[in-house]
Specification:
The chain is of the alpha/beta class and about 280 residues long. It folds into two domains: about 1-175, Rossmann fold (3-Layer(aba) Sandwich), CATH 3.40.50; about 185-280, Pantoate-beta-alanine ligase, C-terminal domain (Pantoate--beta-alanine Ligase, Chain: A,domain 2), CATH 3.30.1300.10. The chain has ten helices and nine strands. The chain has helices spanning about 5-20, 35-45, 75-85, 95-100, 115-120, 125-140, 150-165, 195-200, 200-215, 220-230; strands at about 1-5, 25-30, 50-55, 90, 145, 170-175, 235-245, 260-270, 270-280. Strands 1-4-3-2-5-6 form a six-stranded parallel β-sheet, sandwiched between helices. Strand 5, helix 7 (about 150-165) and strand 6 (about 170-175) form a beta-alpha-beta unit.
């Protein structure tokens, strides 16, 4: 495995490999890797000749008071996992490589990023789209893999690709869960043992709403109350949002009559957690 730290060297490597006719698969991350990330590496490998994984904790997608400074950065462990999982190149730039001191260009998606996480994290998705566009220009991938756990991020990036005619195929990666159902996340490290148990309410709530759908319930307000009731049983949980939206447009829906994304965001202690599922029904 090769470790590349500069933009110029990364671009030079990518252009050389593309001249040889090699397909490049790309997995952008902020590090603190887990099995969810490694599943994305496997997907990228299945669709490409070479896999590049980037680790960059992007400062411009963090809001004031968020966890940028304390975001976990286990460098040696991440490098070892990349090596074991067959990553060909680990791109490991620092902020000085990614942003000039007077950088002034931002890429903003203005529709899909409004609700859900965007409603309470103003400016977050501008940071995401900007850094992802930059990484695409640096790594020059043919395909890039993003996890479904960050469902809104995935759809925002797909829209950016479409609207800016960026020649990269986006491959969604399924949510990877711990054996007890908690969605894998780098931020799970923040949880105390008690908070870790409390966090299981996310999966219980999603399982419950799927059961309600199977039993024939379609009214969103009824489903929202059912879901909220599961979360309310855990006193430590503070609900940030419970949303039922069209899976493609992310616009709110009143009934589940097509593919509907159920997205949750909660806080337990100092930790913010998200989860989601897509409800699939037959037409009633």
């Amino acid at each position: 495995m090769e470790i590349i730290r500069t933009v110029r060297e990364m671009q030079r490597w990518a252009l050389e490999e593309k001249r040889k006719g090699r397909f490049i698969g790309f997995v952008p991350t902020m590090g603190c890797l887990h099995e969810g990330h490694l599943s994305l590496v496997k997907l990228a490998r299945s669709r490409s000749d070479l896999v590049v994984l980037s680790i960059f904790v992007n400062p411009i997608q963090f809001l004031p008071g968020e966890d940028f400074s304390r975001y976990p950065r286990p460098v040696e462990r991440d490098e070892s996992l990349c090596l074991e999982s067959g990553v060909d190149v680990l791109f490991y730039p620092d902020s000085a490589q990614m942003y000039a001191p007077d950088h002034s260009v931002i890429i903003e998606e203005t529709l899909l990023s409004r609700g859900l996480c965007g409603a309470t994290r103003s400016g977050h998705f501008k940071g995401v789209t900007t850094v992802v566009a930059k990484l695409f220009n640096i790594v020059i991938p043919d395909v890039a893999v993003f996890g479904q756990k960050d469902a809104q991020q995935l759809r925002v990036i797909q829209r950016m690709i479409r609207d800016l005619n960026i020649p990269v195929e986006i491959i969604p990666g399924p949510i990877v869960r711990e054996p007890d159902g908690l969605a894998m996340s780098s931020r799970n490290r923040y949880l105390t043992p008690a908070e870790r148990q409390d966090a299981l309410c996310l999966r219980r709530a999603l399982d419950h709403v799927e059961k309600c759908i199977q039993e024939g319930e379609r009214d969103v307000e009824t489903l929202r109350k059912e879901l909220a009731g599961v979360l309310d049983r855990v006193p430590a949980v503070r609900v940030e949002y419970i949303e039922f939206v069209d899976d493609e447009t992310l616009q709110p829906v009143k009934r589940v009559e097509r593919l509907v994304l159920v997205a949750l965001a909660i806080r337990i202690g100092l930790t913010r957690l998200i989860d989601n599922t897509v409800l699939m029904t037959r037409q009633d």
